[in-house]
Specification:
By secondary structure, the chain is an all-alpha fold. It contains eight helices and no strands.
Length: 278
């Protein structure tokens, strides 16, 4: 038989053998993703416990910047470690692809690591939605819930604005009504597209003067200080939410990269083609 014909038949046999195997070994992918998600949960729990033990809220070093950077760096470390373990398992546990080219095996191992990372990410979101939401909720509340509700970021400036003057004897019921009115004005002004008009400022000044017993001029100064303080607080919370979101995005990308690299190593060790350089 001619050599060319033999080569063609051998190539057809190789392609037939290769096509009989799935390019994705889902068992290995799910195992790696599950391991990555579980390790992420363990590392996050450990990080929360270690952070609460090491940092006191009354410590002068416990600043908002320190907290954001520490949390962001730990997100990166957690994503890298857990994703690397999951990707390695996804590559090491898959079966050999018979007849696949070396470059094709490299691509499939990379894809297995990426799929394991994706499964772990989706599973982690389902399991960690509550704790992560609690972590980001305080920062994000400045954008979505500044309408004067109890516990919102507007409570502090409104309380300071309506603090009664010394010796003032006013009904607590009246102060409660005035506070509700002031909170509504602040809440409407801090909604998207809202603003403090001249009438809003004058109305707030009258409320402050009536509820605290101070003069109209002093009430106007309190209103201006409360508005400036509320704007600064909301802006700080907005920036904190944006920075934490960027840290999370960086951690996710780092996790995808780590999982893909680890899967290549795991697959190479599985096939016996990985060699360490000493």
């Amino acid at each position: 038989m001619d050599t060319t014909v033999r080569s063609a038949l051998a190539s057809d046999a190789t392609q037939a053998a290769e096509s009989s195997d799935s390019a994705v070994h889902w068992g290995a992918v799910l195992a790696g993703g599950l391991a990555a998600a579980a390790l992420s949960l363990v590392l996050l729990a450990f990080g929360a416990g270690a952070g609460f033990s090491a940092i006191s809220p009354w410590s002068p070093n416990a600043t908002a910047t320190t907290f954001k950077v520490s949390v962001g760096v730990y997100f990166l470390v957690t994503a890298t470690m857990s994703s690397a373990v999951g990707g390695y398992l996804a590559g090491r546990l898959r079966t050999r692809w018979s007849g696949a080219h070396t470059r094709e095996v490299f691509f499939r191992d990379t894809a297995h690591g990426l799929l394991a990372w994706a499964f772990a990410t989706v599973l982690s979101i389902a399991l960690l939605a509550a704790p992560v939401g609690a972590l980001l909720g305080a920062a994000g509340s400045a954008i979505g819930s500044v309408a004067g509700q109890s516990g919102s970021l507007l409570d502090t400036p409104i309380d300071a604005m309506l603090r009664p003057a010394t010796g003032t004897n006013l009904s607590s019921a009246d102060r409660g009504v005035w506070r509700t009115e002031a909170a509504r004005v602040f809440g409407a002004a801090f909604q998207p597209g809202g603003a403090f008009s001249a009438d809003d400022r004058a109305y707030l000044a009258r409320i402050v003067a009536a509820s605290t017993g101070i003069s109209q001029a002093d009430a106007e100064q309190r209103v201006a200080a409360a508005i400036d303080g509320a704007k600064q607080t909301a802006d700080k919370a907005r920036k904190a939410a944006a920075q934490l979101s960027l840290w999370l995005a960086a951690a996710l990308l780092m996790g995808a990269f780590s999982a893909s690299l680890a899967a290549i190593e795991g697959g190479g060790l599985r096939d016996g083609t990985w060699h360490y350089k000493v």
